[in-house]
């Protein structure tokens, strides 16, 4: 375990934003994670658990307590069963499962961050989400003061949500277990229209696992969603806003305001419809690259808010508020931030 004082947090996030941590503890084993969290709790200190820093917006003032950085390692395959330590780099783990010929998370290639964050957000992309393959999550329960194992059903997964996100101060993810599938070198069925088109197949068809993985990486890179230190379009937290899920009444009011426009819509459960945040942002007048200051929309993807190299967190939040308010004024729909906010809010 490594302990440091007054450590800048910006270099530990994909946005490269945020002030210093009063105290930073880097934990390399599950036992060290638990010990560091328990010590902070017993001392009554504010606690922030940090993984890959890819879904995080930290205030310019930093964090006035203890930051526990999870740097644990562990990748274990037993047939189709995969166990990942929370600190494993997610994109590397996906690549290793593809190399092993296992389907189930191949469309989640290139997503930055650590494995431990995936159940918190119920990470998903291109028609796949981790809720489909997670069987168990091992976590430290700060309320009970002990490690617990939660089944996939106990995680209460929904769109970009989970039990862990609903109660963020209770659980610290230590390990994530998945059941993948050996499909004879083929991918899971292709569900996402953009991926199907780019691969030249129909929805529901399968392709070679390696082809699916490579195509997703290509698509993500084209949107600035694969980390590249030299490309400021990747200095982001990924998609900044979630796709709005509207009740029937909200959706009717929304469509009544569209006039001749036709917004994307997808069933999201009984009485609920999901629409596209990117479409809303674009059609509210915020084009790729919008912004004249040090924080702008990505030049490749309207959903990504980026640091052009000299931004502060307040610069980023001002842009986020401008976009949120503009979409509300144009369409009556409230955009909700996807990244976790630390010491700040919209």
How is this fold's topology laid out?
Blueprint: E1 2-8, E2 20-27, H1 30-43, E3 47-50, E4 56-58, E5 63-70, E6 75-78, E7 81-85, H2 90-99, H3 118-121, E8 124-125, E9 128-129, E10 134-141, E11 146-151, H4 163-166, E12 171-179, H5 193-199, H6 209-222, E13 236-239, E14 245-247, H7 248-256, E15 265-267, E16 272-275, H8 277-283, E17 295-297, E18 304-307, H9 313-331, E19 340-342
Parallel strand pairs: 2-5, 3-5, 4-19
Antiparallel strand pairs: 1-2, 6-7, 7-12, 8-9, 10-11, 10-12, 13-18, 14-16, 15-16, 17-18
Structure, explained:
Keywords: Cell cycle, Cell division, Cell shape, Cell wall biogenesis/degradation, Cytoplasm, FAD, Flavoprotein, NADP, Oxidoreductase, Peptidoglycan synthesis. Pathway: Cell wall biogenesis; peptidoglycan biosynthesis. Residues 17-183 form the FAD-binding PCMH-type domain. The mean pLDDT is 96. The chain has helices spanning 30-43, 90-99, 118-121, 163-166, 193-199, 209-222, 248-256, 277-283, 313-331; strands at 2-8, 20-27, 47-50, 56-58, 63-70, 75-78, 81-85, 124-125, 128-129, 134-141, 146-151, 171-179, 236-239, 245-247, 265-267, 272-275, 295-297, 304-307, 340-342. The radius of gyration is 20 Å and the shape is globular. It is of the alpha+beta class and 346 residues long. The protein has a 5-stranded antiparallel beta sheet with strand order 6-7-12-10-11. The chain starts with a strand and ends with a strand. A hairpin with a 4-residue loop joins strand 15 and strand 16 (272-275).
């Amino acid at each position: 375990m490594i302990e440091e004082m007054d450590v800048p947090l910006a270099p530990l996030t994909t946005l490269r934003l945020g002030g210093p941590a009063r105290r930073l503890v880097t934990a390399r084993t599950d036992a060290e994670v638990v010990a560091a969290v328990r010590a902070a709790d017993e001392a009554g200190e504010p606690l922030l658990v940090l993984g890959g820093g890819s879904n995080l917006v930290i205030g310019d003032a930093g964090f006035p307590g203890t930051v526990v950085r999870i740097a644990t390692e562990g990748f274990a395959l037993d047939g189709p069963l995969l166990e990942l330590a929370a600190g494993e780099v997610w994109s590397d783990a996906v690549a290793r499962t593809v190399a092993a010929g296992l389907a189930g998370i191949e469309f989640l290639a290139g997503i930055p961050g650590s494995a431990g964050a995936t159940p918190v957000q119920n990470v998903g992309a291109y028609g796949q989400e981790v809720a489909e393959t997670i069987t168990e999550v091992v976590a430290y329960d700060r309320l009970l003061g002990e490690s617990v194992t939660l089944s996939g059903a106990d995680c209460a997964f929904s769109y970009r949500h989970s039990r862990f996100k609903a109660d963020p101060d209770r659980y610290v993810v230590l390990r994530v277990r998945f059941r993948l599938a050996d499909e004879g070198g083929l991918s899971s069925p292709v569900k996402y229209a953009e991926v199907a088109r780019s691969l030249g197949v129909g929805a529901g068809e399968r392709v070679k696992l390696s082809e699916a993985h490579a195509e997703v990486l290509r698509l993500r890179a084209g949107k600035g969603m694969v980390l590249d230190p030299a490309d400021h379009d990747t200095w982001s937290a990924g998609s900044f806003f979630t796709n709005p899920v509207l009740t029937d009444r909200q959706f009717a009011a929304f469509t009544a305001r569209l006039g001749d426009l036709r917004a994307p819509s997808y069933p999201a459960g009984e009485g609920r419809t999901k629409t596209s945040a990117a479409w809303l942002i674009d059609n509210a007048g915020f084009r790729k690259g919008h912004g004249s200051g040090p924080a702008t929309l990505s030049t490749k993807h309207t959903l990504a808010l980026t640091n052009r190299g000299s931004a502060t967190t307040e610069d980023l939040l001002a842009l986020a508020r401008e976009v949120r308010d503009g979409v509300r004024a144009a369409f009556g729909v409230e955009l909700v931030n996807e990244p976790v906010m630390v010491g700040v809010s919209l």
